[in-house]
Structure formats: structure tokens, C-alpha cells
């Protein structure tokens, strides 16, 4: 999970607020005169478009966070009410942890619990279930294992996980909308256990998802695995974006896909988000992977060839601008002396 603020586009989705189903995704191209309008897609499939409720409510101060028992250890940002995440672990300035010791074991334990939570969350996905119900269950599961749900109160985020449906790229806030037959939903979970974070996500199919939606989820996981395959000691970080591009650049069974450049992976350990930043698109960023680096790879793959996004009035929920669907999958990768290990597999 990576939190990056996005600016509201000059071209909002105001003309889409009555949209319910897409086949094709047809709407008026009301772009400013100095912008090229998006071509109307003709193969995005059948699905509900997620849009902000009206009247708009700005921010999330109206959403009450769930309670966390006093005995649960909290990350610094949940204690001091600030957005600053303070390092408490053994990482050096480059974000590397010492291998073979207590820090590595704690990191592995956090990642292992995150994997369990991810799979538990996926088991709750079914037609008619609300994402608020899933969030409540995930919150209780994490607490019952002596951990803290890392998203809660991070920069003011009001829930314990992120649930991003259909055209939502990331940071969807759980609510009372029932999941519908044909939805896809990404559930992004992060836990804080014994001073270390574990972070992972997956996009789940709800009921009978159409072919374009299933292909989107399939190529997203292929892109993640390609990024992982580029990892190892001495390997440039930019190779991750190149590997992902090689998967999504050709058409996949007759469909076009692209990767969102707005959200990156990140270093993780005693701090939720830190260097190294992992770019999923083609880039020339410097830096190489070294033993002790631990980071997430979490490409958000989008239908079509337009990865532009905008943020809802809540300040968190990021949607594709043309309402194409997006899927995301995420793993934590630890660079060792001899290779790269996926901690959340």
C-alpha cells in the first residue's frame, strides 16, 4: 500500500455521476479545449462504475475510526496524531535491515501475518457483502493476533484496510455498498506487529466476472511476478518497471493494458513507507538492490492505454479518469545475499 496525494483533475467525473453500467464505456467527451479527449473504449466490459456520493463530503472527518484495545502496540503516527512515521527498528539510512537477526525475524513474522490477513479477507468476498463488513472483520482478525491495522489513522485514513472496486485504482475507503455480481475488489492490508509492518494485497473476483475483468486480474498478477523476477542483489531498481512493461505492453488476448504511474511500491520495515521507492513504469531511476533491502512491488494495471487518475472529494479514493477498471496485487520482497525472497507468498 502506498499513499500518494493526487490532485483533482481539471476534467472531473461530473458528467458520469449517473453512470451505472458500462458496455461500452460511453460518455460525453467534455475535455477542455487544450486537451485531447479520451477515445471512447469499446471493450471494457460490463461493470458498475464507482463514483463519489452526492452531495459531496470533503475529507474523512465524518468517518469514525474503529477502536483498538490499549494493549495493542501502535505505530508512532497512531500515537502522536501526526503524519510522521518514525523509525524504531534496525534499518540503516538506505532502509536495509541486518540479515540473520531479530529484526529480520520480526519482519518475516509481520509479513506472514499480513499474508494470513489477506487470504482471510479474500474469503469474505461474495455478492451482497459490504466492504465495511469486510473491514470490520479484518480489523478484529488483526487485533486478535496482537497486531495493529497499519492504515488506521495513517495520515488520517479512517479505516483498517483499503477496498478498491472496479474503476478505483487504490485507497478505496470501505463503506456500506454491497458487492455486486461482476465486481472486482482489491483488498490492501497492512499490519504492525512487534514494531514491524507487513503489507500485501490482492484483487478478488466477485461472482461471475466478465472476460475483460478476469483478464485484467490475470495480467496484473503476471506483472507482479515479472517485477519480482527482476529482483536480486546488485540488480537495478529500474529493472522492475522494465519487466512489468514487457508484460503489459503487448496486447493480452486482444486487450490493451497500462500501468498507473501515480502509485509506487516502497521500502517497508519499522516504517510503513520509506526508500527505496519502487516505480512500476519505465524509468531511469538510479539505485541497485542490496542485501537487507525490503520493499513492496504493487503494480496497478488499468484497462486500455490511459492511466490518468483523479481523487474523490474524500481525499483518498483514486479512480481512473475514464472509469476503466483497475486491478492491483502486492508482495513484500526481501533481498538476501543470494537472491530475493517473497515474504508474503
TrEMBL record:
| UniProt keyword Thylakoid, yes or no | no
User: What does the UniProt keyword field contain?
Assistant: Aminopeptidase, Hydrolase, Metal-binding, Protease
A GO MF annotation of the entry reads: initiator methionyl aminopeptidase activity
PROSITE patterns from the UniProt entry: MAP_1 (PS00680)
Q: What is its EC number?
A: 3.4.11.18
The cofactors required by this protein are: Co(2+); Zn(2+); Mn(2+); Fe(2+)
Q: Which reaction does it catalyse?
A: Release of N-terminal amino acids, preferentially methionine, from peptides and arylamides
Please state every residue range assigned to the domain named Peptidase M24. 106-337
Q: Where do the annotations place a divalent metal cation 2 binding? A: 199, 266, 298, 330
Instruction: Offer one Pfam family short name for this entry.
Output: Peptidase_M24
Positions of a divalent metal cation 1 binding: 188, 199, 330
Q: What class of enzyme is it?
A: hydrolase
Alphabetically, which GO biological process terms does the record hold? proteolysis
Q: Where does substrate bind?
A: 171, 273
Q: How is the cofactor bound?
A: Binds 2 divalent metal cations per subunit. Has a high-affinity and a low affinity metal-binding site. The true nature of the physiological cofactor is under debate. The enzyme is active with cobalt, zinc, manganese or divalent iron ions. Most likely, methionine aminopeptidases function as mononuclear Fe(2+)-metalloproteases under physiological conditions, and the catalytically relevant metal-binding site has been assigned to the histidine-containing high-affinity site.
**PANTHER family assigned:** METHIONINE AMINOPEPTIDASE, METHIONINE AMINOPEPTIDASE 1D, MITOCHONDRIAL
Q: Please report which protein family the annotation says this sequence is part of.
A: Belongs to the peptidase M24A family. Methionine aminopeptidase type 1 subfamily.
Role this protein plays: Cotranslationally removes the N-terminal methionine from nascent proteins. The N-terminal methionine is often cleaved when the second residue in the primary sequence is small and uncharged (Met-Ala-, Cys, Gly, Pro, Ser, Thr, or Val).
What's the protein called, per UniProt? Answer: Methionine aminopeptidase
Gene source species: Collybiopsis luxurians FD-317 M1
Species lineage: Eukaryota, Fungi, Dikarya, Basidiomycota, Agaricomycotina
